[in-house]
Amino acid sequence: MLLEMAATSLKNSSVMRVIGVTKEYPGVLANDSVSLDLERGTIQALLGENGAGKSTLVKIIYGLVKPDSGQMLLNDRDFHPKGPQDARSKGVGMVFQHFSLFDALNVFENIALGMDEAFQKTHLRSRINSVSEEYGLSISLDKIVGNLSAGERQRIEIVRCLLQNPEIMIMDEPTSVLTPGEVSDLFVVLRKLASQGMSILYISHKLEEIRSLCSKATIMRHGTVVDTCDPRKLSAGKIAESMVGNSFSNPKKSKIKAGKVLLELNNVSLKSKRTFGVPIKDISLRLHAGEIIGVGGVAGNGQDEFLGLMSGELSPTKGTLFLDGQDVTYLGPVERRKKGLLSAPEERLGHAAAPEMTLTENTLITAEHRMDLSKNGVINYSKARSLSEKIINSLDVRTSGAGSLAKSLSGGNLQKFVIGRELIQNPKIFVVNQPTWGVDAAAAASIRQRILDLAKDGAAIVVISQDLDELLQISDVFCALVGGQLSKPTDTKKLNPKTLGLLLTSSDAGKAV
Amino acid sequence: MLRFEPRKNRSKFLEISAPIIAVIMTMIFGGLLFYLMGKNPFEAIKLIFWDPVMSPTFAEYSRPQLVVKAAPLILIALGLSFGFRANIWNIGAEGQYIMGALASGSIGLALYPLQAWYIFPLMIIGGILGGLIWAMIPAILKIKFNTNEILVSLMLVYVAEQILALASVGFLRNPEGLGFPGSRDLSKYSSAANPELISGTGIHLGVISAFLGVILLTYFLSYHRTGFHIKLIGQAPRAANFAGVDLRYIIIFCLGLSGGLAGVAGMFELTGPAGLINIDFNVGYGFTAIIVAFLGRLNPVGILLAGLLMSLTYVGGELAQFMMNIPAAAIQVFQGMLLFFLLSTDLLVTYKISVKTPIRK
């Protein structure tokens, strides 16, 4: 088998060959003799569910993780990077899902800080300018990063990567934070790079993207490569099937008649205390039982603050908030949860969950009072453990058990746990920020289905997301959150890509109310 | 260039054996120090670590001393560890210890020479309240005005010391004391005394309280909601906020607990080993307890062991001074070495040192 693979790869002009790489973590075989060929001048997808081993594989290629066994060849020469810096110097660059930029510094300073070798200021400036011009990556060097959009920040990361003249660029979920317009801009850049001979390894969950962008896809499951295919020739459903190993159904929305008003926001405003925080301006909203409101918009437009106002972590500086007719404006998270308002923030590690604590302990964070996990302040750990086991089972969270630390779970699995923790408590109102961020297709479909089921049972739901397809698929009403202002709610069915784009970019979206 | 990098997989074995390695390192380097001073290193080490507990000649005296000195350290460190876990830094336990002693002492001296069963319990309550109220000053200032509790609690130590001096020469001075500073000897006033319970062991009510405290607070930290919230704040403050933990309550709780325990430690010390209120009543237990809390990794059982170890170096150090004429300064260096090695082995358990080649020009 190995020989065969070696033979075929010789025919193509492979720039990178990964041959039988194995990496074992305590209890998990993250990569089980994985092989992969990256051809020169192509954009190639790496697909798989959460925990399939994609991240481990790219971390090995980028020198962040050392494999237990196996071989890597770069231009037919042995490639064993000692670390990311070594990998970069040999021509492998990576753009991460989470940007590593300093908000308070300007663009040039951020790029300069990331340089491995010594440079002259003026020389670097001209090099940056020529790279960004060549590939149409417009960035202005003197702007402060804190004021830039996600798309602009990503361009900085890409330029930073290109300055090292890489032969291979690895991109981890690059479109998860971009608007549709920014996505198509990015694709233009990526195609141009590929046409000039660069090889791009593209990790994404969005099958439609991969089908339009990539000429080859390597599909991983449970640490092994299960298929290599041409994604342009297969339907998204087929690709997803080989990713999960069984077919999954898209969530179905059943027609629900909206009931009484469960949640009412009247002119809620908030002055942000953080340096780059976004103030919330005059949000008014009515939410009925059985209704799902989708709040779209690019990250950094007040999503975190909006969720904080709903969960009770933040108190509004102005306005009122009613829950099923009761004034809850100044109630904290505990009281709001008791009344049935549950929420799940975007940031999983550190906000929704404590990384160094077990899943059982993490269950206590939101479920203690509503699920009676304590009596007179004394925690009933066996009850908490069985509840967290129930969450693990009901959402198929892949973990060795309720005793595992939150940080040991992969992002998608932790997300399933965090959402499941709220769903199991039968919320009356559920507010969630980025419910399927970084979650694989099958899990995302199942989370969306759960949200729809919850609405069918009469709950009112607010879904804040940057994935517009997701919002269009599940929400009844759509609002855009731009610059801390919420646009007038629009019936989702009446939206088309054009009106959507306008809603999301218009700076006076809030004035439409 | 050398850099510390967090270890991905911490070894349980190393974590447990780190303190033992540290003690052995201290023995080696401390022994070297004593050798350079012309003293027999083996004899000195034996005097410090072995004789206080096992020697037929000294143990009778030093074994009780060991628990007497460890008890206040453990009591105070237990309280401090809760705040430290939640990033609330009470540095002023020494002041709370003094105020607890002053409050309980005032009650006892006011009732002198009445004999009644309720005097001692009343003094315990006074000790707790004295320390607790003193600790509420930084707590309330922090909540109301967002002041830094490190500075406020530390400054209040010096205020407390002044009040102690004032009391010793003024309002609490022994009227039959021929004008010397210092109060009546409470250990000789049977209704207020905290005597040795079993003769020759040094065990008094404060020692028993320290052991009880270890058990109760271990339980509290593991099973009580507030214990869970304290751990949560320390590990993930945003998650604690999301959980709805009221930070004001936690500030009051942590400072109140550490103040109350420091106060009651002062009370037991006053009515037992110290006996009377005097200018030199406080000997630094409140500060040493900070070290004990961290040596014990903020864990109640760890604090128990760290308190005993700390006490051993004091008692053993005195013995070495007395028997071998080793100067007090050398003993302090020796204690410093122990702390240094304990902290550095601890650091090496969580971090590894990696060598980075600098970027070439």
Task: Give an overview of the whole structure.
The complex is a heterodimer of chains A (about 525) and B (about 350). In chain A, about 45% of the residues are buried. By secondary structure, chain A is α/β, with parallel strands linked by helices. The C terminus of chain A is likely disordered. Chain A is about 35% helix and about 25% strand. Chain A has 17 helices and 23 strands. Chain A is globular, with a radius of gyration of 24 Å. Chain A has three domains: about 240 residues, 3-Layer(aba) Sandwich (Rossmann fold); about 180 residues, 3-Layer(aba) Sandwich (Rossmann fold), CATH 3.40.50.300; about 80 residues, no CATH class. In chain A, strands 13, 16, 19, 20, 21, 22 and 23 form a seven-stranded mixed β-sheet that branches. A six-stranded mixed β-sheet of chain A has the order 6-7-8-3-9-10, sandwiched between helices. A four-stranded antiparallel β-sheet of chain A has the order 2-1-4-5, sandwiched between helices. By secondary structure, chain B is mainly α. Chain B has one domain. Helix content of chain B is about 70%, strand content about 5%. Chain B is built from 13 helices and two strands. In chain B, strands 1-2 form a two-stranded antiparallel sheet. Chain B is globular, with a radius of gyration of 22 Å. Chain B starts with a strand and ends in a 6-residue tail after the last strand. Chains A and B meet through α11, α12 and β18 of A and α8 and α9 of B.
